[in-house]
Write a structure and sequence with these properties.
Hypothetical protein yfbM fold; 5-stranded antiparallel beta sheet; 8 helices
């Protein structure tokens, strides 16, 4: 399988409830919330390309989140629930700033800076970065960027918080 990233919209009430959950029950509660969603547009699976997108946008792996950087926070969140699990959230009041930064990304500049060697040197997850697939990999990452932008637009439209789980 692999380590996947999931972004989920959550109401203020549900976020407050999740913040109160004990650390050992957090993963189970997040999965319960995701399964209960009737509107699939309230959830986005960034799948395995989360670290690649983070690295492409910031020059750092997601293992080195950049506090205060909206592009980093778009992938890994703003506030961690605890130190044990990679589950975080973004309050609805912070989502628009993140969306605006994602929309301002210059895709052609990213394309010209995209280096398979840099991805491999920095051990960007997953280990799929091959020169002979460079264009296809770039296009897949940009598809995920566009999907994430649509997800954040929906979160703003619905005035929702965002919970990010990576495991």
């Amino acid at each position: 399988m692999g380590i996947l990233a999931c972004h989920t919209c959550l109401s203020d009430e549900n976020l407050k409830e999740l913040i109160k959950v004990d650390a050992e029950d957090l993963v189970e509660k997040v999965e319960e919330i995701i399964e209960a969603l009737s509107d699939r547009s309230m959830h986005y699976d960034l799948d395995k390309l989360w670290d690649g997108l983070h690295f492409l946008l910031t020059g750092k792996t997601a293992g080195e989140p950049i506090e205060g950087d909206p592009l980093s926070e778009a992938i890994v969140g703003v506030t961690n629930f605890n130190e044990d699990d990679f589950i975080s959230y973004i309050k609805s009041s912070e989502v628009e700033k993140i969306l605006n930064c994602l929309k301002a990304v210059d895709v052609e500049k990213l394309r010209s800076n995209f280096s398979i060697q840099d991805f491999n040197k920095n051990e960007v997850y997953p280990n799929i970065w091959k020169d002979d697939e460079k264009e296809e990999l770039f296009d897949r990452i940009i598809e995920e960027l566009n999907g994430l932008i649509k997800f954040y637009e929906r979160a703003i439209e619905m005035k929702q918080n965002v919970v990010i789980s990576i495991y």
